[in-house]
Design brief:
Elements: H1 3-8, E1 10-17, H2 23-33, H3 54-59, E2 66-72, E3 75-81, H4 89-96, E4 101-107, H5 114-125, E5 130-135, H6 144-155, E6 159-161, E7 163-166, E8 174-177, E9 182-186, E10 195-198, H7 205-220, H8 224-231, H9 238-250, E11 255-259, H10 268-278, E12 288-291, E13 297-300, E14 309-316, E15 324-331, E16 333-335, E17 339-342, E18 347-350, E19 353-358, E20 361-365, E21 367-369, E22 373-377, E23 387-390, E24 396-397, H11 419-425
Parallel strand pairs: 1-3, 1-4, 4-5, 5-11, 6-11
Antiparallel strand pairs: 2-3, 7-8, 8-9, 9-10, 12-13, 12-24, 14-15, 14-23, 15-22, 16-21, 17-18, 17-23, 19-20, 19-22
Helix pairs in contact: 4-5, 7-8
């Protein structure tokens, strides 16, 4: 497989939502169905893989963004699970700066909530293509249509449903796929792992026909091939619909919408299919731009053979190592034991270790290639938002905007003797 083909099968995505929309539960199901986790972690039990901090497990909320990698149908998906609470908005901002696509999770009862609007605006700022997953369809008061309407009115989005829910509230049992024209149900005996297909039920034929017609009508606005066939009443193939959906999603013209209940193990596999089908790979995004030493704007192609450049989007200290620098590699490759240049600080840095992360677990690797996300150990001068590039090269990528803090606190040492320890800790 060529390097370009490998890059085409990579997805760098974030999961974002208002607090309690079921974002982390959705991520936990993704890890289970992709084989990354051998058991389902549950937020309410305090054993969710992605909520690994003690405070997160106690409170049942996500405080810090956590990264992992999984595989779905020969596609590598780098996932960052972000916090949904307004107090931790900076975590979302830092991650969105380096992500190529987003899954926005909405509660089917609450619909578009305040933090949903905040994270949506953040994704708009970076022009990130996204999917929407309407979760908790099994809850009392769940309303798929109202959710679509709220997305349109409050977010200014152009939601395009790809599914219809089957059954209301506690009777929710599956979804109807509007593209492939079939009913999907999820076996309770296999914890939703087995997806059963069946023809569209007779009781839903009228609703299905109208919804599929609306889907094709909207796609015709963005794809000439679909428009010609639609106007001439010629059937549009599934592949043509998929292509049109992907192109419109990448152009930010539509937001494909799916539905399910992550907690009840329904609807997650079709969501994964949509992630690899509609969200961009590193080669689909615009070329990364930066400034050279002379102050001129320059571009970098995404490719392993190009000169290395990457952006550090988060720093974190932990109990295993001094500190980790999370990095998105845009071009070239970051290699173990090598040296890189920080053009912002005008300092050289040595790479002591390179890591791939699974929440708070880590595995050492020898290199991190273009289009990938990982962590570096050993950086002395680099801070969040800094660019790293090859020695002898000079490019400064656009950094990130830090939102105003929602609260401020002061920390003082108990004694003069503890000043140095406190300074080092901070």
């Amino acid at each position: 497989m060529s390097a370009q083909s490998e890059l085409s099968s990579v997805r760098n995505i974030g999961i974002m939502a208002h607090i309690d929309a079921g974002k982390t539960t959705t991520t936990e199901r993704i890890l289970y169905y992709t084989g990354r986790s051998y058991k389902m972690g549950e937020v309410h039990d305090g054993n969710a893989v992605m909520d690994w901090m003690e405070q997160e497990q106690e409170r049942g909320i996500t405080i810090t963004s956590a990264a992992t990698t999984c595989t779905w149908k020969d596609y590598k998906i780098n996932i960052i699970d972000t916090p949904g609470h307004v107090d931790f908005t900076i975590e979302v901002e830092r991650c969105l700066r380096v992500l190529d696509g987003v899954v926005a999770v909405f509660c089917a009862v609450g619909g578009v909530e305040p933090q949903s609007e905040t994270v949506w605006r953040q994704a708009n700022k970076y022009s990130i293509p996204r999917l929407a997953f309407v979760n908790k369809m099994d809850r009392v008061g769940a309303n798929f249509e109202r959710c679509l309407q709220m997305m349109s009115e409050r977010l200014g989005a152009n939601p395009l449903p790809l599914q219809l829910p089957v059954g209301k509230e506690a009777e929710f049992s599956g979804v109807i796929d509007l593209v492939e024209e079939k009913l999907l149900t999820f076996s309770e005996q296999s914890l939703g792992q087995e997806v059963e297909e069946a023809p569209v039920p007779d009781s839903y034929i009228e609703e299905f026909t109208a919804a599929r017609m609306a889907l094709l009508e909207k796609l015709a606005d963005f794809d000439e091939g679909v428009m010609e066939k639609y106007l001439e009443d010629i059937p549009v193939s599934v592949d043509e619909i998929y292509r049109a959906l992907r192109n419109a999603t990448l152009a930010l013209a539509i937001v494909p919408v799916l539905c399910g209940s992550a907690f009840k193990n329904k609807g997650v596999q079709p969501l994964l299919d949509s992630v690899v089908r509609y969200l961009p790979s590193p080669v689909d995004i615009p070329l990364v731009e930066g400034m050279n030493k002379a102050g001129d704007r320059v571009e970098r192609k995404t490719g392993v053979q190009e000169k290395f450049c990457g952006l550090v989007f988060k720093l974190m200290s932990d109990s295993f190592v001094e500190n980790l620098a999370f990095v998105r590699v845009y071009s070239g490759a970051l290699k173990l034991g090598g040296k890189v240049f920080n053009p912002v600080k005008r300092k050289k840095e040595k790479i002591s270790k390179l890591l791939k992360l699974h929440a708070n677990k880590r595995s050492e690797v020898r290199e991190i290639q273009a289009g990938d996300i990982g962590a570096i150990v050993g950086l002395k001068f680099t801070t969040t938002g800094d660019t790293l590039c090859e020695n002898g090269d000079f490019i400064v990528l656009e950094s990130m905007e830090i939102p105003d803090p929602v609260i401020g606190v002061a920390i003082e040492p108990k004694s003069k003797a503890e000043e140095k320890k406190l300074s080092e800790t901070l």
